[in-house]
Design goal:
single chain, Trna Endonuclease, Chain: A, domain 1, Arc Repressor Mutant, subunit A, 3 domains, four-stranded mixed β-sheet
């Protein structure tokens, strides 16, 4: 049996031919019962009504300037005994003219055709391939917004909603992603109903709370887990608290940030966003050490490479990660005591 995509291309090409000529071609696949006098490359036969002209056809997924000479020689060899039609997805004008010059008959899904079989003569060129249905395209890329790179774009949208209507190049720079990623994310957000296009290059969020909830659901696997993280411990937590992380171009996240934002939670474990280039100096200043083998540290200190430049994730309070990121740290932790602190932080800064 021929693959589904072969039959789809052939079927689409036949529909376009009938739409433009009303020849009502009848289609028969030879499957595995190909007669011995027909090339094994022949996929099937079409009958052009009402003339009852029978033409063998072969399928080629695509043709280009590189494979065209070989293809022409092959098809002309087939023509020595029986008329053969080449069916493919698309033949551009230059290739179409070359095929016609060699009297190689062809048909594509855009509607281009050359059939020279008396009394039938068809010469249709210059048709461009139809653009795929936008709904099909969007279904293929749905979820791009909540993949690792897309998560970075959404984070920036959540803390800077005005960014949505900035040029895509500016969004890409702020989120530190490729320009194409920004378009995919915005298209996906529109398709999923998080963003509406109001025209005149103006977009608006429909429900930032729902967007945040979905971003938070994907955060542990598609953002947090993608960051380089190293676990340390300390025998002097008070010294750690006194360090000015701005000296190391870092910022506090997790429990200590929550404590300083709300003065409700007493930090037991620590999380610092700090670039790898500054981690060694910070380790020395804070006198941190790696836990020994089989040691379960009483105090955990996690050094995390920030998803962006540290300054981009800081709130007005310098040296502190944005409350949204701190909330994500708390809500995805395994510490039940952090849940109340997360709720308070949300109510105070994010609601």
């Amino acid at each position: 049996m021929y693959k589904i995509n072969v039959k789809k291309v052939v079927g689409d090409a036949m529909k376009m031919l009938n739409r433009q000529t009303n020849l009502e071609p009848e289609l028969v696949y030879l499957e595995h019962n190909t007669p011995k006098d027909i090339s094994k490359d022949v996929v099937g036969q079409i009958t052009l009504l009402p003339s009852n002209i029978v033409i063998n056809f072969e399928y080629k997924k695509w043709i280009n300037a590189a494979n065209l000479p070989t293809l022409i020689d092959k098809m002309k060899g087939s023509l020595a005994d029986v008329q053969t039609l080449l069916i493919t997805e698309y033949v551009n004008p230059m290739l179409a003219q070359r095929l016609k010059n060699h009297d190689v008959q062809f048909l594509d899904t855009a509607g281009n055709a050359y059939i020279n079989h008396a009394p039938v003569y068809i010469d249709i060129q210059g048709k461009k391939p139809m653009k795929p249905n936008i709904d099909v395209l969007m279904r293929k890329q749905i979820g791009k917004a909540f993949q690792p790179k897309g998560m970075k774009v959404i984070f920036m949208f959540l803390i800077h909603p005005e960014l949505l209507n900035k040029p895509m190049r500016a969004i890409a720079s702020q989120a530190e992603v490729a320009l194409g990623t920004v378009k995919q994310v915005i298209d996906d957000l529109e398709y999923q109903g998080f963003v509406v296009n109001k025209g005149n290059n103006e977009r608006a969020f429909t429900d930032t709370h729902r967007l945040f909830d979905k971003w938070l659901g994907a955060y542990p696997e598609n953002m947090q887990a993608k960051l380089n993280q190293n676990l340390y411990t300390t025998d002097n937590p008070e010294l750690l608290k006194t360090i000015d992380v701005n000296d190391f171009e870092g910022c506090w996240g997790g429990e200590l940030a929550a404590q300083r934002y709300d003065d409700y939670l007493t930090a037991k474990d620590f999380l610092i966003y700090i670039a790898p280039a500054h981690q060694r100096a910070f380790l020395n200043a804070a006198r941190l050490r790696k836990p020994a083998n089989n040691e379960i540290p009483e105090i955990k200190v996690m050094l995390v490479e920030p998803p962006f430049e540290s300054r981009k994730i800081q709130e007005k309070q310098t040296g502190m990660a944005h409350p949204l990121l701190v909330y994500a740290n708390l809500i995805t932790s395994v510490e039940p005591r952090n849940m109340d602190a997360a709720k308070r932080l949300y109510g105070k800064y994010l609601a």
